[in-house]
C-alpha cells in the first residue's frame, strides 16, 4: 500500500516528513510506502537472529532492527530491513546519530536481512536485491518462512551471487566465517 500523494516526494522531503505518528515508511521511487507491522513469526525470526549474532560475538551496538537504509532506485529511496548488521566503521559513523538512517555517503552495512511477508515477495526478491547490490552491501539474506528457504546473496563485483538453503542445510557466509546455522533453525525462529 502506498500513501496517496499529489506529486512524487524527494529524498529531502522524506527526511523532513512527519505525519504526527510513529509510523515507519520506505521511500520507493518518490512514493511513501508504510512499513506494516510484523507477524509473530517474522518477529520471532528477527529476534532469533539478533540473539544468534550476539552469541556469535557481534556487539549489540552493531545490530539494528528497522534501521533505514538509503538506496538507489529510480531516485534515492529508503528501505527498512528487518535486521541490519553494521560494520565497525559504520557503527562509528552512526554513533550519536539522531535518526537510524544510513545515508548514501556512509559505509554500507555488512548484512541486511529481509523476512518475507505475504504478497511482498517481488519487493524482497527483485527490487531490494538490485538496490542493495547497487549499495554494495556484502550480504543480503532473504528469510522466506512461506517457501521454507533462506536465500543468501553475496555481493561480487556489483552483483549478487545467490545460494538457497532449505531444511538442515548449513548456511555459508563470507562475512561470518564461523557461522554454524541451518535454514531450519532460522525458519523456526
Short description:
The chain is 26% helix and 26% strand. With 189 residues, the protein is an alpha+beta fold.
Structural description of this entry:
By secondary structure, the chain is of the alpha+beta class. The chain has a single domain, classed as tt1808, chain A, CATH 3.90.1570.10. It has 5 helices and 11 strands. Strands 3-6-8-9-10-11 form a 6-stranded mixed sheet, sandwiched between helices. The chain has a 3-stranded mixed sheet with strand order 5-4-7, covered by helices on one side. A two-stranded antiparallel ribbon has the order 1-2. A hairpin with a 2-residue loop joins strand 1 and strand 2. The protein is globular, with a radius of gyration of 16 Å. The model has no long low-confidence stretch (mean pLDDT 90).
Features:
189 residues; tt1808, chain A; 3-stranded mixed sheet; 26% strand
CATH class: Alpha Beta
| CATH superfamily placement | tt1808, chain A
Per the CATH scheme, the topology name is tt1808, chain A
Q: What share of the residues does DSSP label as strand, in percent? A: 25-35%
Class computed from helices, strands and strand pairing? alpha+beta
Uncertain segments are none
Query: What spatial form do the alpha-carbon principal axes imply?
Result: globular
How many domains comprise the coordinates?
Answer: 1
What's the rounded overall pLDDT mean? 90
What's the main sheet like? Answer: 6 strands, mixed
Query: If you compute it from the alpha carbons, what radius of gyration comes out, rounded to the nearest whole angstrom?
Result: 16 Å
Overall number of strands: 11
The CATH architecture is Alpha-Beta Complex
Number of helical elements: 5
The percentage helix is 25-40%
> Which sequence of SSEs, written as H and E, runs from N to C?
HEEHEEEEHEEHEEEH
Strand order of the main beta sheet, please? 3-6-8-9-10-11
Report the end-to-end length measured between terminal Cα atoms: 27 Å
